[in-house]
Amino acid sequence: MTSVLSSFYRRRNFYYLLDRRLLLRRFSAESDPSKVIKPDCEESVAREFLEHLRDIPQHDWVSCELLDSLLLSSSSSPRVFSQITRRLDSYSLAVSFLDYLNEKSESLKHRDESLAVAFQSVIEYACKEPDSRDKLLKLYETSKEKKVPLTFNAAKLLIRWFGRLGMLNQSVLVYEELDPDVKNTHVRNVFIDLLLQGGLVDDALKVLDEMLEKESIFPPNESTVDIVFHGCVSKGKPKRRRVTDEETIQLVLKFGDRGLSPNSVWLTRFITTLCKNGQTLVAWETLSKLMKNKIPLETGPFNALLTSLGRNMDIGRMNVVAAEMDEMGIRADAVTLGILINTLCKSLRVDEALEVFEQMRGSQSDDGNVIKADEIHFNTLINSLCKVRRLKEAEELLLKMKMEKGCVPNTRTYNCLVDGYCRAGQLDTAISAVSRMKEEGIKPDVVTLNTMIKGICRHLGVSSAVSFLMDMEKEGLQKNVVTYMTLINAYCNVNNIEKAIHWFDQMVEAGCSPDAKIFYALISGLCQARRDHDALAMVEKLKRAGFALDLMAYNMLIGLFCDKNKADEVYEMLTDMEGAGMKPDSITYNTLISYFGKLKDFESVHRMMEKMKKDGFFPNVVTYGAIIHACCSSGKLNEALKVFNDMGSHSKVFPNTVIYNILINALCKLGDLKQGLALKEDMMKKRVRPNVETYNAFFKILKDKNQFETVLELLDEMAKHSCEPNHITMEVLMELLPEVGESKRLKKFMQGYSVASSIEKDAPLSLSRCSNETAV
């Protein structure tokens, strides 16, 4: 504001009225009751004055004795002159009457007051005139020349209208030339509002600071608060300086020191903004300071804070806020109840949610209304109970819901129950729930349909889901993208890619646009079925639909082409991926390392390893497994063992069952049973559990080496570790045990009994001996 006013300071003409402060106090103070003129008397004088003014020519007003007598009447109070001026027929007559009063000012009992109120009425006339700009400027200059004081309202009118007419500088000049006693709270409010509208935020804040000073005789009021927070903080003109959150908080607290606060709607919006900007703690501290100043606050801002805390699952701080609200007498409402229940349910603290629900339901909110539980509250609780498999309690809560006045179960309510029963595998009960909702006049929707389809696919199979779908379609329910997605995924999971594509085609024919997830599912299914040409065709369809491959889809395609040894397509996918702005991840690198390992291209394997580390991905157990497998496949067993030994010591990646099996299988194939068994012992010592593949590798070599006792020991070990045999195990044992006359041992093994303990110590069996005995 200093820059705007500097030019005015040089040219403005200061004027001072004698005993101005006393005069202004007379404007604002009530008159002595004994000297108050009755309104009906004032009205009579005003009416008579107006009749003579209209009958007498204007040029004769000054010389008219009749008007003089009325002017000198004891009933001629300043209010009378205000009434007369307002009731004249035109602006020109009002100006003429003001001139008349000025001519007769020496005869007026209350000269300054009378002129001031009449001048205010003339300004009101001028504001309505087409050429108000020129008239107001002329009137303001006249007031200074003739030393007509401005009333509070006259000052407000001039400041406001000059601003509306785009004359902000003139408004500033009027304000600065006002006597300090005229600059009351209302005048300052108008001026601050005008400065804010003109984008002079800093100047407006300076005026506000004067009002906020402890010794200020014109402190801010509620209107000041509304003006400041609407014009200063709310979104305004693009060129306006933005008031920061920190400045806004200081304004809120300064008003709070004066016992004032923004209205609840604005404060709620501001607390929400702070929370969205990650300043939840600042929002809470601001509300706390307002509460310490005993500022009357409503529930809205606290609900905004609780919403943010709930979104961050900060239940501890939510409890603190709720306790502070209760201590300060700020009562929760239905919204508070919903926020608390929703957050507790999301964190699966269902018992606490139920406790809050019972405590708050029926209590009274700040507005005097009783907190009633609605469908949303009940549905949230029922849904959470279903998710934690407490289905009986969910049904009990549904009964309570039906008994609650004005609260009726809806489709969402039953969908929660249906989903709960489907998750628990209780498909019959889920179907029964769908029947119940129909009986109660509640129509199932597509969510009901999709929930049932998903549950049936998981527990009964996709064929049963299709049958259910057809039945529901007869009742008028229509499929949507989710329905198709569920069926397509289900068929892909059982490797029935033909049916999956059939449903995809049906979906397109029905005019239902597939989303990216559906394309990804089909690409994955086609990759698993090793149908590379169809997978690429689906990629083209995906791109034509406006979607792009994600990293997972690229990895699936790269894996497929590596598996089919199509180097050109692998390179094309990598190039396409790079063009899409995606970098390979650990899955991509592991796939490529495995691919180059199968090709025995160890130079490329090492190059991929280095690039992988450079991109910030460290080799994991899959990476080492691929390298060890490649070394073993190439006959480089020593190098494979070196990589194996380096895993735990250097990379701190520990081998799993798969890696042990690769090495054990390679050692057994080379006939090195001793080292293979040693590796198995090392495996068990490190608590890596052998599986059926581990034992199968030993059975094959033990058969060839005629070590029947070791076979039996390993069979007992399998039983001890609950390792179930597979078809390969049974083939080897069926060839081995009957051959040595040990069919009973095979039967015992299959029944889970120990087989090694029944071997006669004094007559150890060997495969060669048994074979000879059989021959004899």
Automatic annotation (TrEMBL):
GO terms for cellular component: mitochondrion. PROSITE patterns: PPR (PS51375). InterPro entries: Mito_RNA_Proc_CCM1, PPR_rpt, TPR-like_helical_dom_sf. GO terms for biological process: mitochondrion organization; RNA processing. It holds the Pfam family PPR_1. One of its GO terms (molecular function) is mRNA binding. Keywords: Repeat. Gene3D superfamilies: Tetratricopeptide repeat domain. This is Pentacotripeptide-repeat region of PRORP domain-containing protein. The lineage of its organism: Eukaryota, Viridiplantae, Streptophyta, Embryophyta, Tracheophyta.
